[in-house]
Amino acid sequence: MVSLRGAGLRFGARSLWDGLDLDISPGEFVAVLGPNGSGKTSLLRVLLGLQPLTAGTVRTYGGAVRTGDNRIGYVPQQKTLDRGLTLRGRDLVGLGLSGHHWGLTLSAAKRRERTDRVREALDAVGAADYADAPVGRLSGGEQQRLRVAQALVSDPGLLLCDEPLLSLDLASQRKVAELIDARRHLADTAVLFVTHEINPILPMVDTVLYIVDGRFRIGPPSEVMTSRVLSELYRTEVDVLRVRDRIVVVGTGDSIDVLGRAGQEHHPQEQFPEPS
Ligand SMILES: Nc1ncnc2c1ncn2[C@@H]1O[C@H](COP(=O)(O)OP(=O)(O)OP(=O)(O)O)[C@@H](O)[C@H]1O
């Protein structure tokens, strides 16, 4: 579905990553992790044909990337929609069916097919109940389900997700992650999932691409999410702990770190005060 060979991207003097070789097969779930500014969104933009590489090659579906490829679904970084936006959820999802494929004037049969596709996508994400409400009035989690439906309505074989769980509560995170996972099992859809937090998707992840300051590692979570590998990537001492079925990362100082931005200056008694 995706093939990157010797791929590099630089802006001016700054190289985001270089020498990146990555193959993604149908049905594979790839998590892309790394601190702010490491080039995760830029990688998605390359695959969407919005950002040319500065070195190497990229192919999707075995051919050159192109913008507006409706075989690629895209869930963008979540922004809360304007409260005043009166567009209905059903129409937002319909935007995922590109005009040139369906034509500007639709026959009655085509119109019915389009309506059915939108309804199926709404049902698949459990959004049928609020499909006719103005999207600006919906909660962040409800809006996010609609974005997933919009990305899936064209039946993409490749789904690119840019932090789709951001600012969702735990129940909504689980639901949205499960929807995406269900889709890949149902249709063998390959998923490239940019995230700062691996735990909500950990059971689904086949491969991690972890990028830090131009350095990166690719492999299964058990190989990449280790103290040794993350310490090498961050060039500082990082501890990766397994707590129940979660991964806890300490020492990176970025948002995947259990201690957040203060991680490297951590004083245990300040973070976790003893009960008085
Ligand atoms: N078109 C551009 N021109 C110049 N610099 C750019 C351009 N696009 C991105 N950058 C820079 O490249 C770096 C990587 O950006 P990118 O959005 O890919 O990071 P990210 O890993 O997705 O970050 P975050 O986790 O904060 O979303 C940033 O420093 C950004 O400012």
TrEMBL record:
ABC transporter domain boundaries: 2-238
This protein's UniProt keywords: ATP-binding, Nucleotide-binding, Transport
Disulfide bond listed as a keyword: no
PROSITE patterns xrefs: ABC_TRANSPORTER_1, ABC_TRANSPORTER_2
GO molecular function: ATP binding; ATP hydrolysis activity
Highest taxon of source: Bacteria
Record-linked PANTHER family: IRON TRANSPORT SYSTEM ATP-BINDING PROTEIN HI_0361-RELATED (PTHR42734:SF5), METAL TRANSPORT SYSTEM ATP-BINDING PROTEIN TM_0124-RELATED (PTHR42734)
Record family assignment: Belongs to the ABC transporter superfamily.
Protein name in UniProt: Putative ABC transporter ATP-binding protein
Organism: Hoyosella subflava (strain DSM 45089 / JCM 17490 / NBRC 109087 / DQS3-9A1)
